[in-house]
Amino acid sequence: MAAKKPQSKTSKSRMSAKGTTGQTENLKRKIKDLERELGEVKDGFLRQAAEFENFKKRKNAEFLNIIHSANGDLLKELLPVSDDLDRLSQLDGKKSQFEDLHQGLGLVSQKFRNILRSQGLEEIEAVGQPFDPEVHEALLLQKKKGVKPNRVIEEHQKGYRFRGRILRHTRVVVSQ
Fold it and tell me: Tell me: domain 18-119, CATH 3.90.20, correct?
């Protein structure tokens, strides 16, 4: 068996230099791969961000389109009321036409309320009801014989709900 020949310092340093050079090259390749992968991830992220911005713009445009369409539908329903008011304003004002005018205004008012109701608007009932600060706004407290305390006895301004949400509180006089 042959004895191992001791390696000289220079051959050891060459080997370690080769190993270090190999490791350095390997690390450089890994860095390049990681930089390329990072670039791909960045590019994907930027694409996703741009896609999301475009999506938001499309959704906002669709939302505005829906609102404009709904407004157009409501206006279309209100046009007959406008026509009726125009016809009423064309009456020449003779005394005999006063009753016709009064009756016509009543019919136009009823038609207008029906349109509002069909769109989801509800009148808030008040007179005779217990006072409810959620739907009523008390303007005055007044004593009234034969009426229980804390009841609405008079309505000064009609209140309305739209699809369950209070649009305007009913302004009322409440019994003491």
Answer: yes
pTM: 0.56
Judging by beta carbons within 10 Å of its beta carbon (0-12, 13-18, 19+), is residue 170 exposed, middle or buried? buried
Q: Among positive and negative, which fits the CA dihedral 67, 73, 79, 80?
A: negative
Question: Is pLDDT at 9 greater than 60 in this prediction?
Answer: no
Per CATH, the number for 121-176 is: 2.30.22.10
Q: What is the tens place of the pLDDT at every residue in 41-64?
A: 999 999 999 999 999 999 999 998
Domain limits, the chain: 18-119, 121-176
18-119 and 121-176 share one fold: no
pLDDT reported for residue 154: 92
